[in-house]
TrEMBL record:
Source organism (scientific name): Alloyangia mangrovi
PANTHER family linked: BIFUNCTIONAL POLYMYXIN RESISTANCE PROTEIN ARNA (PTHR43245), UDP-D-APIOSE_UDP-D-XYLOSE SYNTHASE 2 (PTHR43245:SF13)
Occurrences of domain NAD-dependent epimerase/dehydratase (ranges): 3-266
Top-level taxon: Bacteria
Protein name: NAD-dependent epimerase/dehydratase family protein
InterPro entries: Epimerase_deHydtase, Lipid_A_modif_metabolic_enz, NAD(P)-bd_dom_sf
Length: 363
């Protein structure tokens, strides 16, 4: 196949390239201004990187040619970091909606299969949270089903939902073109993929607030306390990036089954509160370093406003129904959270623990 991957230099893109370029003969053309995570593939004859933003005017003809000659377009390009949703909302909306619009239109024009990376935030908060059922007694009020569950999100002053709204609009645009123009599509709703190379470690190779894995890992590496936002009661299910990539490969191998569907990609068995995740990560780090004192590593509580600023609102729980992925793709994740963390945190430890943080260098 000829595969076009937009945002191929990020976390998911880098793992997808690892898999596709080592186990298949597919020809891949990618776009991403960032290439640090995919350096090892730059000389591969089956891979061409356009080191540009997809909306860069200089690259529009190349992009059109790639879509015209491609069998499938996988769009991963996005700003997808919750700390930006309420602090950088216009860029978030542009990146997740308006920059994607021309890509969708190109796929419609050439009738090319679009695998559109969306988000579990397309469900917003659970019905349980809105009716005040914090014991989550009724699965009908919290389980996320692709073709049944409504989107519930807070008011516009809670800018957290800029991202969810933009992604949801793209889902609707893609679906409308499917119905009206026969656009072949697959929507992927990832539920917290974890693995090596996710985001960056603050004060080492990036500034700002990354997603929770890199926040907690950065705290452990930099000697700062791990911070629980609003007590760390939010729940997430964590799935291994390797199993998530398996799901994407199964879609590529079975276009007739993947076409026309939205899929939840997550692991129901790996659900934790953020407080449990912090505890599990400090215990895992004690194992990796052989230093038992990490088991009691400091964890502090901070308010969402303090941590993210005004307008943050959390998704309380994300428990995916994955029966569609199971039935249509034969995909079922098995890697336990403990193993995901051991593998991922060992990578971060090996990659960063030897390097001093800037403050230490200055001293
Ligand atoms: P990431 O931030 O690691 O990667 C995104 C990549 O897109 C980056 O390398 C960035 O440089 C690139 N990019 C951004 N704007 C671009 C543009 N205009 N042109 C070209 N490249 C551009 O994110 P990720 O975790 O790999 O996520 C990929 C997709 O999956 C995103 O659409 C995201 O919303 C979705 N998603 C991921 C998760 C997860 O658990 N990782 C969860 C929910 C949704
Ligand atoms: N979170 C936290 N401490 C941190 C970073 C994040 O408690 O240092 C919480 C955040 O409030 C949310 C969860 O961890 O409840 C997951 O956040 P993430 O940024 O990974 O993205 P999300 O799953 O919300 O898309």
């Amino acid at each position: 196949m000829n595969i076009v991957i937009l945002g191929c230099g990020g976390f998911i893109g880098s793992h997808l390239l690892d898999r596709l370029l080592t186990t298949t003969d597919h020809k891949i053309i990618g776009w991403d201004p960032e290439s640090s995570k995919i350096q090892k593939h730059l000389d591969n004859p089956n891979f061409t990187l356009h080191q540009r933003y997809v909306d860069d005017p200089e690259t529009q003809q190349d992009l059109r040619d790639a879509v015209a000659n491609g069998d499938v377009v996988i769009n991963l390009a996005a700003i997808c970091n919750p700390s930006e949703y309420n602090t950088n909302p216009i860029s978030v909306i542009k990146s997740n909606l308006f920059d994607v619009y021309p890509i969708v239109e190109l796929c419609v024009e050439y009738k090319r299969w679009l695998i559109s990376f969306s988000t579990s935030e397309c469900y917003g908060r659970t019905l349980s949270s809105y009716v005040g059922d914090t014991s989550y007694e009724n699965p009908d009020l919290y389980e996320l089903k692709e073709d049944e569950t409504p989107l519930i999100m807070g008011p516009i002053v809670n800018q957290r939902w800029t991202y969810a709204c933009a992604k949801q609009m793209v889902e609707r645009l893609v679906y409308a073109h499917h119905k009206e123009d026969g656009l072949p599509f697959t929507v992927v709703r990832p539920l917290n993929f974890f693995g090596p190379r996710m985001d960056y470690i603050p004060q080492r190779d990036g500034d700002g607030v990354p997603r929770v894995l890199a926040c907690f890992m950065g705290a452990l590496l930099n000697g700062d306390p791990m911070k629980l936002v609003d007590g760390g009661k939010a729940r997430r299910t964590i799935v291994s990036i390797y199993e998530a990539v398996d799901a994407i490969c199964r879609m590529l191998d079975n276009p007739e089954k993947a076409n026309g569907h939205a899929f939840n990609i997550g692991n129901r068995n790996n659900e934790v509160t953020m407080a449990e995740l912090a505890d599990l990560m400090r215990k895992t780090y004690a194992k990796i370093t052989g230093d038992a004192s990490y088991e009691d590593y400091p964890i502090i509580e901070v308010s969402a406003e303090e941590f993210y600023g005004e307008g943050y609102e959390d998704c309380d729980r994300r428990m995916p129904d994955i029966s569609k992925a199971k039935e249509l793709l034969g995909w079922e994740p098995k890697i336990a959270l403990e193993d995901v963390l051991l593998d991922t945190m060992t990578y971060f430890h090996n990659e960063y623990a030897g390097s001093m943080k800037p403050a230490q260098v200055a001293e």
